[in-house]
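Incident log, structure service

09:12 report received: a user says their structure output differs between two submissions of the same chain.
09:20 pulled the input from the user's history:
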Amino acid sequence: VQLVESGGGSVQVGGSLRLSCAASGYTYSNYCMGWFRQAPGKEREGVAASDSDGSTYYADSVKGRFTISRDNANNTLYLQLNSLKPEDTALYYCAADRYASAWYFFRASSHAYWGQGTQVTVS
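09:34 re-ran on a clean worker, output below:
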């Protein structure tokens, strides 16, 4: 199983980015997937999740600004980041696991598969 993130970068406050996570090695459409982030000196936190039925869940801090989506035909997960703030600066990871819903995935303490992360810097 492999998850490879891309699309990070440095942007100004108010800018946008789109992160991608290419998945391989498992039946992508059967898995919940999501995005997490970790800023220096802080714990990793959930950002958004999507289950196999297309239901989504977001952290309160990103609701209305970030959008998670998935392309099951191309085994790719996306995160559109709009209206970026300095506090969004972090290393963003995608993860995958079999959970009943995006809600459970978001709250789970462990996830089976992780990518290597892509850096987002907002200044």
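09:41 both user submissions now match this output. Likely a transient worker issue. Closing.
09:42 reviewer note: The helical segments are 102-107. The CA atoms of residues 97 and 112 lie 5 Å apart.
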